[in-house]
Every structure is written in C-alpha cells, then in structure tokens.
C-alpha cells in the first residue's frame, strides 16, 4: 500500500466537478458532483442524531434498496435539514435532475447537503449547478480538488487522500474527500465523506469493511461535542481495477480494509485538525484499558473535555484535567496506576507517574504543546487494549465563528 497524490478521481472510472451555482453569496464554489463510468456497489454510514436531514433519509434508502449507485451530487451552504416534505422532495428532484443529465436512474444518485439548518434549498441554483457540472466532469487531479473545495463550509482547507493497494495481482485505488470543521462529535459529525474505489468487492463485504472501520476513525473525532443532522459517509466501488471479486474474508479483504483504514484515518485527522478556530490537532492515545470499548470511551472522554481542550490552546500542561476526564468516563481503573505523557515534534515528556505529578519542567511541556500536532498518551494500567481519538484545541475563534455563523 502506498499513498498517492489524488482525490476521488484517482480510482479508474471516476470523474468529478465543482462549481459555484449561486447558493453562497460569497461567490465561492458550492456544488460538487462525483460520477462513475460503471455502476457501483454502495455502502454507507449515517448520523446517529434522531433529527436527520432529508439527504440522509434519501441516501439511506439508496444504500439499502437500490441495486447500484453511480453518482453523488452535493451542495454546500444550505443543509436541507428540518425542511419537511418540501426538503425531501428537493432531494428527489436533485437526484432526478442529476440522473437525467448523466443518463442514469434517479435511484442511482446519492444526494448530500451541508450548511445552515432550517432553510429550504434554492432549487433554481441547484438545477443550474447540475447543468453546469455534468458537461465538465473530469478525471484529472484538478477536477477532484475542485469538488473537494466545493463541499467546504467553515473548513479552511480541502481534505483529500488516495492510496494504492495490490489485490489479486491488480492495482486498486481507495480514495476519498471529506468536509467537516464544526458540529463534530464521536458517532459521526457535520461531516460529509465520499469514498471511491475501483476495487471489485461484494456489496456485503463493502458495508462490513466500512461499518467496522468507522468505529476507530470517524467515530473517534470530536471538535465541539455536537452531532450533526447531516453526517454521511458513503463508499462507492465500481470494480474497474479488475481484481478477483472479494466475497469473503481473506488476504485481499484484509489488504482492502488496511487501505480503507488509511484513507479514513487520514480524513479523520484532517477534519479534527481543521476544527473551527483550531490552532492544533489534539490526539489522545489510551492504552492499558480492560477492553476495546473501554479504551475508546477513555480516549473520547479526554478528547472531548472542554477544559483539556482549553488547556491545550493555552499551551498549559494541566494534566489534572486529563486525569479528571479519564475518571468521569465511566470506565473503572485505579488512578494510582495511571501514567501520562505529552508528545509532539518538539519531544516527549512524562508528566504523570502512578497518578501523581512526575518531575518535569513546565517550559519543556509548553514547548511540546506549542506544535501544530500534539498527542496526550495515557496508560491506565487496567488491561491490554488501546484506542486513539482526535480533536483540536478550543479557542476564542471557535466562539466567534459560531456566534456569527448565520449572519
């Protein structure tokens, strides 16, 4: 497996486009389209929020009931959430218009939206965007980048990744693009992620791989503790790599899962590190947990702690906040067996040993915490399981961005 420079157009047969359709007053790109030359097996994972946006309901139906999917149409600027029957009808129209432009059934079109909740979609702009994108779909690197830029809201940078993997003697590619900056919390987030692959894999195995991996990737990121109405991760596989179809667990399935994990982990870290107002990616690694779920719970507790996130922003090694978060996680452990380290490119420093302060210099801790990527490592001494979560620091700019979001 190796990382290559690419986005959703890196696998064979995939094309993309991104344009300004007129949804955003800023004039920035606000619609994206992904298209596969061949029908795709499809898998999806969606928000756990009871309040689900219309596109989520549409896509769940496509993933569960449609024999294949072949396109994804996305708008940014308006979430199409809490919009009732009119909002769902807009999804149907978006899919129908896209299907008509591409010559595929509307049931083969996935729909996604991101932006302000409660507003109806400006369908004149949506229709205009679809008509603009269909003729300019391309498979070049720039086409993927334009699509990735078009789905951004408060994101500061596009998020893309592609990896190559050998499956049955054939080179396959797994790639993806995502967006997310705020309303990010474990068990999905205001996070849209579109994954493409030319691997040949059965639909059941595709869904199995996605559902299993999301537990340790997208379900382990947090920016602000808010779980969105629109969270969606969809995976399209068109089989054009020509590898023998993966129909069961085995070496090729393992390799595919490794490639998928690399893509999803990279996108998870990109989303967490680009949290609204963030100045650094905050990674939490927990080891010594009694079981895997306990390890995940402990890591999430620290990465979501507002006090810990604020301390990271202040470059303050206030380890008591980390230990406190571990303590209220609900996982049983002996506090007097906990060791904690801080890690970054500036070095590694043990700050807690057996539940009390280790001998360290505050200046060294501050230097470690001043990097763009900071890791807290906690060994709770209660078992053999580990997990990693990703978040960011909590800054003054986070409040400013969300106070002014609609205005």
UniProtKB/TrEMBL annotation:
Residues of the active site: 190 (nucleophile)
Site feature Involved in the stabilization of negative charge on the oxyanion by the formation of the oxyanion hole, where: 114-115
Record: residues binding substrate: 153, 179, 190, 276, 402, 407
GO BP: L-arginine biosynthetic process; ornithine biosynthetic process
Site (Cleavage): 189-190
Annotated GO CC locations: cytoplasm
Coiled-coil residue windows: none
Subcellular location: Cytoplasm
A Pfam family recorded for this sequence: ArgJ
SUPFAM superfamilies per the UniProt record, alphabetical: DmpA/ArgJ-like
GO MF annotations, alphabetized: L-glutamate N-acetyltransferase activity; L-glutamate N-acetyltransferase activity, acting on acetyl-L-ornithine as donor
Enzyme Commission no: 2.3.1.35, 2.3.1.1
Cross-referenced InterPro entries: Arg_biosynth_ArgJ, ArgJ-like_dom_sf, ArgJ_beta_C
Catalyses which reaction(s): N(2)-acetyl-L-ornithine + L-glutamate = N-acetyl-L-glutamate + L-ornithine; L-glutamate + acetyl-CoA = N-acetyl-L-glutamate + CoA + H(+)
Keyword terms, alphabetized: Acyltransferase, Amino-acid biosynthesis, Arginine biosynthesis, Autocatalytic cleavage, Cytoplasm, Multifunctional enzyme, Transferase
Biochemical pathway: Amino-acid biosynthesis; L-arginine biosynthesis; N(2)-acetyl-L-ornithine from L-glutamate: step 1/4; Amino-acid biosynthesis; L-arginine biosynthesis; L-ornithine and N-acetyl-L-glutamate from L-glutamate and N(2)-acetyl-L-ornithine (cyclic): step 1/1
Function: Catalyzes two activities which are involved in the cyclic version of arginine biosynthesis: the synthesis of N-acetylglutamate from glutamate and acetyl-CoA as the acetyl donor, and of ornithine by transacetylation between N(2)-acetylornithine and glutamate.
Assembly notes: Heterotetramer of two alpha and two beta chains.
Family per record: Belongs to the ArgJ family.
Protein name, UniProt field: Arginine biosynthesis bifunctional protein ArgJ
């Amino acid at each position: 497996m190796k990382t290559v420079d690419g986005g959703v157009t890196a696998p064979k047969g995939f094309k993309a486009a991104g344009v300004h359709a007129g949804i955003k007053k800023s004039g920035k790109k606000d619609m994206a389209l992904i298209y596969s030359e061949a029908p795709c097996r499809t898998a999806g994972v969606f928000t756990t929020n009871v309040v689900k946006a219309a596109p989520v309901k549409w896509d769940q139906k496509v993933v569960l009931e449609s024999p294949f999917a072949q396109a994804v149409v996305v708008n940014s600027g308006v979430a199409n959430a809490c919009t009732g029957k009119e909002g769902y009808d807009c999804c149907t129209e978006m899919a129908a218009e896209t299907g008509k432009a591409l010559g595929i059934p509307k049931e083969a079109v996935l729909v996604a939206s991101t932006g302000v909740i409660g507003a109806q979609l400006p369908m004149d702009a949506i229709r205009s965007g679809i008509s603009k994108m269909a003729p300019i779909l391309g498979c070049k690197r720039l086409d993927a980048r334009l699509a990735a830029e078009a789905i951004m809201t408060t994101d500061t940078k596009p998020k893309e990744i592609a990896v190559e993997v050998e499956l049955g003697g054939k080179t396959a590619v797994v790639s993806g693009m995502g967006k997310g900056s705020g309303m990010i919390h474990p068990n999905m987030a205001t996070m849209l992620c579109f994954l493409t692959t030319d691997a040949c894999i059965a639909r059941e195995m595709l869904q199995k791989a996605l559902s299993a991996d999301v537990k340790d990737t997208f379900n382990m990121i947090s920016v602000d503790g808010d779980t969105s109405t629109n969270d969606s991760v969809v995976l399209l596989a068109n089989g054009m790599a020509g590898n023998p179809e993966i129909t069961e667990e085995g070496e090729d399935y393992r390799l595919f899962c490794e490639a998928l994990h690399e893509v999803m982990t990279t996108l998870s870290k990109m989303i967490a590190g680009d949290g609204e107002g963030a100045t650094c990616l905050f990674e939490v690694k927990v080891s010594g947990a009694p079981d895997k779920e306990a390890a995940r719970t402990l890591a999430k507790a620290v990465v979501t702690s507002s006090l810990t996130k604020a301390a990271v922003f202040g470059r303050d090694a206030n380890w008591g906040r980390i230990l406190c978060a571990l303590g209220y996680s609900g996982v049983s452990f002996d506090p007097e067996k906990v060791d904690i380290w801080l890690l970054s490119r500036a070095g590694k420093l043990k700050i807690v040993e057996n539940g009390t302060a280790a001998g360290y210099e505050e200046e060294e801790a501050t230097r470690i915490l001043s990097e763009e990527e900071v890791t807290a490592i906690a060994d709770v001494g209660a078992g053999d399981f580990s997990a990693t979560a990703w978040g960011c620091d909590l800054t003054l700019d986070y409040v400013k961005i969300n106070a002014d979001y609609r205005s």
